[in-house]
Design goal:
262 residues; alpha/beta; TIM Barrel; eight-stranded parallel beta barrel; two-stranded antiparallel sheet; 8 helices; 10 strands
Amino acid sequence: MTSLEICVDSLESAVAAESGGAHRIELCNSLVEGGLTPSLGLIRAVRSRIQIGMYVMIRPRAGDFLYSDDEMAVIREDITVAAENGADGIVLGLLTEEGNVDVERTRELVDFARPMEVTFHRAFDMARDIDLALQDVIRTGADRVLTSGGEPTAMRGRHRICELVQAAGGAIEVMACGGVRVENVEQIFRATGVREFHAALRSTVESPMKYQRRRVHLGAPGLDENIRRIARTADVRKLQQAIERAIHAQDESEQSAVSNAI
């Protein structure tokens, strides 16, 4: 069975993901920074509106994935909050200063999070050696690893993702991410053998504000506060349908090969 996970940072996008046929969401704050831990209010609001799986991002700040003891305490508290408010899983990633997976502390968090599932996020793609990182993530007991194969996109990293799937040997689920779209998902599927896909599918929406003060920036200078980005139901549905077509085409190909062999 394949699954589609949509990364969202708003209630509107979460509802759209479910309406479009996604199997679960990754709920974050601040996707412009790669995703941070969402607020309690957002977690509760989303859980009350959707029935599909909800995985909560556990990332206390932007930047690297080397966390202090104080930050680890925050992480544990955020995991508790997620568990108490209906999360089906959490998403996290910890590295050492040498660029390796922090196996010991990640394993502790995985155990702490149970019975929720745990995804090790794209900190994996920032590791020094992703082959070693895969074995380390398996050792942590995490349920899946999110990866673009150490490349900016899943298309560019598809051959490495295939190698990771083969190396995992079913010990952990490998979920492809990074620019997964309608036009390339079948190629990624065929090249990698992954059964899970992750996408953001964010579309730009202009602010309905009649007055817009564009000289002032509350965040980074290049960030336009008068637009926001959301997932749309139609885009999610199109991607889910493209995945289903890819599976159907492969099934037909395999059945044809069996028939010809007979």
